[in-house]
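Checked the freezer inventory, then went back to the computational side. Two predictions to log before the end of the day. The first one is the construct we discussed on Monday; recording sequence and tokens without edits.
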Amino acid sequence: MKDLIAHPCPSADRRIEMRAVAELTPARRHARTHSKKQIRQIAQSIETFGFLNAVLVDPKGRVIAGHGRVLAALLLKMTHVPTLEISHLSETEIRAYVIADNRLAELAGWDKELLALELQDLLTIDLNFDLGVIGFEAPEIDLLVQGLAPERDPDDDLTERDAAGPPVTRVGDLWRLGAHAILCADAREPQSYARLMGASAPAWSSPTRPTTCRSTATSPASAPPGTASSRAPPAR
């Protein structure tokens, strides 16, 4: 609190001014780097949304924050940019703030679920600009959106079966599902196929015995007509 009182921020006296880009100079020992790709991205953002963040400068016109925006302005051949003069900090404090302004932004994170939801919504809107201007490339956006958990359909939730209650399906039950049928029966018994398919004989079957109960293999002679074999596969 003491430092805040020592460095009041007279916002009423601070105004954004348009200054010539040629009059601005970079901060001494500016350690933050900007690749050509990033400068192009900043330039695309300025073209799409406008120059929304003023460049912070000291009374001598040296850039305190906004070096990337100045470089993007040069790429766009802009002659003037909005600036905000900072006069209440000492030279040492400005040097420290230049580092803090860049480093503190790096320490922020993303709530990836909320980010993915926001990107998903933007993808469904008919935008009048390329979504790439936000800094995420198309593969990154796809991965984030694909990582979202699908919305659960209440109809997909299965009721837990009460092991102590009566069984829902017993051997011999035949369930009709439109044109389909499911029979609870022994796949090694010829009569199971007759009940399930009537006069139509299967061309081939590959039954698998339940892993939770013992079963003895039957001979190939007991296989229903038209099947390769009804012998139960050996335990693995």
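The second is the one RB wanted added to the comparison set:
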Amino acid sequence: MQTERAQPPSCRDAVQAEISAGMYAVNEGVEWMILTNGQVWQAWHLTAGLPVVLDLALEVDLHGEGGPTQKTDALFPLSKEGFKHHVIDELWRVKAATSAKSIGTAITSDAVIEQIRKSLFENSWRGIACNTS
């Protein structure tokens, strides 16, 4: 009898699994989706709408860098106590607020651009006034 060793899932398989889990979560109306293969733990936040937005809020690789204490702390938001105190919600809010997209939107807003223009204009006139005296 010959046995075959199970092959690790390909990247394509992993993406397909994420999509399937995401569709299931959307259909069930849940806000959070926890995915794991036993080694890597991920917490995804689902924002309803069209299109549905999936944000990776947390990822912990148990075989990755860091010691047991760091990994235990990193997984705390997924614990019963963590969910009881909405730790994962706060983690997601902070991550969303400090994302590149959020910061880019903030610094390219009309109000910020107008302040930059005013500051540059005022500083350029000060420079001209200082050089002529």
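For RB: The helical segments are 11-28, 68-75, 80-84, 87-97, 100-107, 110-132. Confidence is low (pLDDT under 50) at residues 1-7. Let me know if you want it refolded.
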